[in-house]
Amino acid sequence: MSSHLLSLAIWVPIVGALFVFAVGAERRRAARWLSLAVAIAGFLVTLPIVAHFDPAAAGFQFIELAPWIQRFNVQYYLGVDGISVLFIALNSFITVLVVLAGWQVIEDKTSQYMGAFLVMSGLMNGIFSSLDAMLFYVFFEASLIPMYVIIGVWGGPNRVYAAFKFFLYTLLGSLLMLISLIWLFLEAGGTFNLVDWYNLKISLAPQILLFLAFLVAFAVKVPMWPVHTWLPDAHVEAPTGGSVVLAAIMLKLGAYGFLRFSLPIAPDASHELAPLMIGLSLIAVIYIGFVALVQSDMKKLIAYSSIAHMGFVTLGFFIFNQIGMEGALVQMISHGFVSAAMFLCVGVMYDRMHSRQIADYGGVVNTMPKFAALFLFFAMANCGLPATSGFVGEFMVVLGAIKANFWIGFAAATTLILGAAYTLWMYKRVAFGAVANKHVGELTDINAREFVVLGLLAVSVLAMGLYPFPFTDIMHASVDNLLKHVAVSKL
């Protein structure tokens, strides 16, 4: 099916952001309403893509193809399959919530703040729909700029350090990817077409080098241990909206890169280096879980929790079975909802108390009962409680891991206890008990706007937990096709 829906999903938020910028910093009210209108329009454009997507087809759909840089045969080539289509809808949905979340909080440079998120939304939709490697790279790198600005301008006291560290880590990783793309361009006879690259016959040694180069670029984005240290700093210093988009969408870019580049282009190297990937994933799940246990800052704890949850994603990819890979994709979408909700909950408290320290709270349930109930629900989802989306993905990955190797599955499953430990311990100290101090005693419960934002996420988490079939059905054919492709040796 051919249409311009994917172009609309990319360019509606970006062009809309230009109008938001034009409103100016002084007209805050106009900037907010225009940003919300653009974000909703961007989300509505993605709905027909999901609604008219054919889950029985394994190939790419909604194809758009036009020449771009003809001298180097770079094309404006877009398309989505069952692996990428849901992330476009998730990204656009989260953007709407981020605009609502910053409604009253951002008083300084409101139009620039809202516009930066809209630009980032369009760029990330471009990443998820690019089928030309150079187009992918342009979107991939350009998405760093708005997040760098968001952290650097509206972040906390150490925002410049955190923004620079974020930019440096991700940019250096991407340079190796660029070298790989140029090598593949020459190897494929002068094309950046990803579909053509999937049919290349590459010997094992170059495949391993390609895989390692892609690994550096994508592992930083996930982030995998040991290149994860930029993430807690970025989360702690970023404004609430920045943390939400960073956790819900940007971390998915690295994992998505493995599925779009590493596995299909270097399938033999993927099998050869699978033990390394599984080992790094288990370290992320186990070691980072213990690190999260000792955190005193709520944002830092949830940041480390994100790294641990993304470890399940990379584990699911490299056990090479259907249920594991589908579970990893479900976990990515679920983590988008749950991590966004957790950071928004911390943001709600921070807006009132201007503290993220767990020790400064206690007894919040007494003064904010509606908020405490929603926060508890999201904390349970973060633990992987059955009937929440957090359970579905982790259960499928553990099941797939046990199918591949009992001890890998056992190691992954036992670490779920760690997730429950650090999440519930944080919630207990923040919400339960007597009112800890006068500041907690003066807290006011969530207003209608905050309730709508958290309520929409709660409905999403519950719906996906109770009935995950629509999600797994969309991705099934594409995952099956990818696994068949990876199973066939290219040597």
Q: Would you spell out the secondary-structure blueprint of this structure?
A:
Elements: H1 5-23, H2 28-51, E1 61-69, E2 74-80, H3 85-101, H4 110-129, H5 133-142, H6 144-154, H7 159-187, H8 194-197, H9 204-221, H10 230-237, H11 240-265, H12 267-272, H13 274-293, H14 298-317, H15 322-353, H16 364-367, H17 369-383, H18 389-404, H19 406-414, H20 416-431, H21 438-441, H22 448-466, H23 469-487
Helix pairs in contact: 1-2, 1-4, 2-3, 2-4, 3-4, 3-11, 3-15, 4-5, 4-6, 4-11, 5-7, 6-7, 7-9, 7-10, 9-11, 10-14, 11-14, 11-15, 13-14, 13-20, 14-15, 14-18, 14-20, 15-17, 15-18, 15-22, 15-23, 17-20, 17-22, 18-19, 18-22
Structural class assignment: mainly alpha
Helix content: over 70%
The overall pLDDT average reads 85
> Distance between the terminal alpha carbons, to the nearest Å?
34 Å
Order of helices and strands: HHEEHHHHHHHHHHHHHHHHHHHHH
Write up what this structure looks like.
This protein has helices at about 5-25, 30-50, 85-100, 110-130, 135-140, 145-155, 160-185, 195, 205-220, 230-235, 240-265, 265-270, 275-295, 300-315, 320-355, 365, 370-385, 390-405, 405-415, 415-430, 440, 450-465, 470-485, and strands at about 60-70, 75-80. Strands 1-2 form a two-stranded antiparallel ribbon. With about 500 residues, the protein is mainly α. The mean pLDDT is about 85.
